[in-house]
Write a structure and sequence with these properties.
alpha/beta; 3-stranded antiparallel beta sheet; 5 helices; 11 strands
Length: 200
């Protein structure tokens, strides 16, 4: 699986970094640890699909920390595959969640302070909507399907009508379960990867 790293380059399959585009679906898999060690200092952080990359097919690519230039926050992770695109975001650890409201969650931070965050499933769904709008503006002739999931260790977090809720060990299976988009051929996937690469 190809990783489009945050802002500075591509983590290649040898565990190094390159500013040249890597071919989509390049055979072989890199070890996550060596790849992440190679980009320490480049603000690339481990995300759910990056950590699960050894179990994800080579015909996928993941982009980390994607700013859509729409004034919103960067999307932590976008996976591109035969299904189209998938936004994957991480839930806070269940032990740190003090309350789960309908619009916001109260989370205990490492410094002992509490912090209100937007409801994670709603926030992920909004990020997926932002990606759909961005994709629609760039390519009016083809609709790329966008799926969304949050990943966490609390299996009691219910999915919503707009967002799946999965465990970290379910990422590869969830991606594999998404229906392939026949019109999203390798050329279109490569074009989308190029467009997203220009944002990171």
């Amino acid at each position: 699986m190809q990783i489009i790293a945050s802002r500075r380059g591509v983590i290649d399959d040898a565990g190094g970094t390159s500013t040249a585009p890597a071919p989509f679906g390049f055979p072989g898999l890199a070890r996550v640890r060596s790849a992440l060690r190679a980009v320490v200092g480049r603000q690339v952080h481990s995300t759910p699909a990056v950590r699960a990359r050894q179990s994800i097919d080579d015909n996928h690519a993941v982009a980390v920390n994607v700013g859509l230039r729409d004034g919103g926050r960067a999307i932590p992770e976008i996976v591109i595959g035969p299904f189209g695109a998938a936004v994957i975001e991480e839930l806070p650890p269940s032990a740190a969640v003090l309350t789960r409201g309908t619009r916001s969650w109260e989370v205990l931070m490492a410094d002992g302070r509490t912090h209100l965050i937007d409801h994670p499933l709603e926030r992920a769904a909004r990020d997926a909507d932002r990606l759909r709008i961005w994709l629609g503006a760039l390519d009016t002739d083809h609709v790329v399907r966008v799926f969304v999931a949050v990943v966490g260790d609390d299996r009691s977090t219910p999915r919503t009508s707009t967002c799946a809720s999965i465990g970290s060990d379910q990422i590869a299976a969830w991606l594999a379960s998404l229906p392939a988009q026949r019109s999203f051929d390798p050329a279109r996937r490569a074009r989308l990867i190029g467009m997203i690469r220009s944002l990171v």
